[in-house]
Design goal:
CATH topology of the largest domain: Aspartate Aminotransferase, domain 2
Protein name: 1-aminocyclopropane-1-carboxylate synthase
GO molecular function, one term: 1-aminocyclopropane-1-carboxylate synthase activity
Keywords: Ethylene biosynthesis, Fruit ripening, Lyase, Pyridoxal phosphate, S-adenosyl-L-methionine
Bound molecules: pyridoxal-5'-phosphate
Radius of gyration: 27 Å
Structural class: alpha/beta
Pathway: Alkene biosynthesis; ethylene biosynthesis via S-adenosyl-L-methionine; ethylene from S-adenosyl-L-methionine: step 1/2
CATH architecture of the largest domain: 3-Layer(aba) Sandwich
Function: 1-aminocyclopropane-1-carboxylate synthase (ACS) enzymes catalyze the conversion of S-adenosyl-L-methionine (SAM) into 1-aminocyclopropane-1-carboxylate (ACC), a direct precursor of ethylene.
Distance between the termini: 84 Å
Shape: globular
Largest sheet: 7 strands, mixed
């Protein structure tokens, strides 16, 4: 132990959060419709498994890309040897065009401003290394993606200070909440280097409003700090209101020639929008050439393999495919999300109205035994161990109010979702029956106690009367 680094022995990785513990429980007893129908259903994993058939059928039709060929000739050797950390130009071009397409081509992106990374995980950490020193702070609105504790803090030593958002305004960011977080950081002697938001939000499943984005730009302008917009779910918006990228706001406000232009950075990845988390394809987009140069050098520690880049540059350049994929994928996501919402409704559970992401932000406050995080954990354990659904408690997302849970819907089939909702409904019904019998028991005890108290007082009254006589 003594010979190991502090990084190895400290627990700021966040692996002990209930978010990861739930996954471990699932791994021990995973649901399978035939082999393990009583197992735990995984609803704590933000994966999109609804549209695999689309890239698969594209691969079947594009033998050159899948077989590492160009015009029928093998390029195996070329790909095996390619290791330039600037990335394949064709892939960078295809990726920025795809990012523009997702944003309705209202903004364009320059391939020279993009840095390829092994997923958004690596992109976020790299940005921390570029923008902050150990002990500096980034402000993050709550609830936030539990992985940020690992990605932003663990190896960099950067601190996260929460911007407390609440259900009273659908967890939107407000000016007082931003200012309070900034002041809190200062009280802790932390230098604030920026704000990091996820738009669309994980775990809320909502897109940020234009006025929220304007507020953020005003705040970072005023405080002279950075803004990172993690837009990993930008192509996973399936109903209105549509997605507005931070880049669109900068352009609309003609801020290209101002210092703030170079202080806004976008994080992107194909893990969610194309459902390819295993391919490890992420990116940083920045208007600051120094950040781009430094991040490019750092990307040596987490490059995207050249065969992945080659394959995806062909896929993303096929505009017919990307258009069809987006349209079909959105339809499927919307259908599955509404199945979750109606299933929850049948169980008497509401959730935040959402239009994006692979999850819903579910309100189970009425099922808590008390308005505390202990009660939230108690409920979470019953849902994981008794109901056998792995969902993520709000506390793992640093939510400031107990009783909210993130429930994922796109990593399971329609039938599994149906079963999950049946399990949840039976649980809620049993809680209601228990509460009812508990109440009846309480009422009958009260009646008994009233009689007893009455008798007692009657008795003492009687005794007193006897005495007085
Ligand atoms: C907001 C957010 N950022 C980053 C990541 C990490 O993504 P990747 O698989 O591309 O590393 C996730 C994954 O869930 C996420 O939700």
């Amino acid at each position: 132990m003594g010979l190991l680094s502090r990084k190895v022995t400290c627990n700021s990785h966040g692996q002990d959060s209930s978010y990861f513990l739930g996954w471990q429980e699932y791994e021990k007893n995973p649901y399978h419709e035939v082999n393990n129908p009583q197992g735990i259903i995984q609803m704590g994993l933000a994966e999109n498994q609804l549209s695999f058939d689309l890239p698969e059928s594209w691969l079947a039709k594009n033998a050159d890309a899948a077989g590492f060929k160009r015009d029928g000739q093998s390029i195996f050797k070329e790909l095996a040897l390619f290791q330039d950390y600037h990335g394949l130009p064709a892939f960078k071009k295809a990726l920025v065009d795809f990012m523009a397409e997702i944003r309705g081509n209202k903004v364009t992106f320059d391939p020279n401003h993009i840095v390829l990374t092994a997923g958004a995980t690596s992109a976020n950490e790299t940005l921390m290394f570029c923008l902050a020193e150990q002990g500096d702070a980034f402000l993050l609105p709550t609830p936030y993606y539990p992985g940020f504790d690992r990605d932003l803090k663990w190896r960099t030593g950067v601190e996260i200070v929460p911007i407390q958002c609440t259900s009273s305004n659908r967890f939107q960011i407000t000016a007082p909440a931003l200012e309070e977080a900034y002041q809190q950081a200062q009280r802790k002697n932390l230098r604030v280097k920026g704000v990091l938001v996820t738009n669309p939000s994980n775990p809320l499943g909502t897109t940020m409003r234009r006025d929220e984005l304007d507020l953020l730009i005003n705040f970072i302008t005023d405080k002279e700090i950075h803004l990172i917009s993690d837009e990993i779910y930008s192509g996973t918006v399936f109903s209105s209101p549509g997605f507005v990228s931070i880049m669109e706001v900068l352009k609309d406000r003609s801020l290209e020639q101002t210092p703030v232009w170079e202080r806004v950075h976008i994080v992107y990845s194909l893990s969610k929008d194309l459902g390819l988390p295993g391919f490890r394809v992420g990116a940083i987009y920045s208007n600051d050439p120094i950040v781009v140069a430094a991040a490019t050098k750092m990307s040596s520690f987490g490059l995207v393999s050249s065969q992945t880049q080659y394959l995806l540059s062909a896929m993303l350049s096929d505009k017919k495919f990307t258009k069809e994929y987006m349209a079909k994928n959105h339809k499927r996501l919307q259908k599955q999300q509404s199945k979750l919402v109606s299933g929850l409704e049948k169980a008497g559970i509401g959730c935040l109205e959402s239009n994006a992401g692979l999850f819903c932000w579910v309100d189970m406050r009425h099922l808590l035994s008390s308005n505390t995080f202990e009660a939230e954990m108690e409920l979470w354990k019953r849902i994981v161990y008794d109901v056998k659904l792995n969902i993520s408690p709000g506390s793992s997302c640093h939510c400031s109010e107990p009783g909210w849970f993130r429930v994922c819907f796109a990593n399971i089939s329609e039938d599994t979702l149906k079963l999950a909702m049946q399990r949840l409904k039976s649980f809620v019904d049993s809680v209601a029956i228990n509460n009812q019998s508990h109440q009846e028991l309480k009422n009958s005890r009260k009646k008994f106690r009233t009689k007893w108290v009455f008798r007692l007082s009657f008795q003492s009254f009687h005794d007193r009367e006897q005495d007085e006589r």
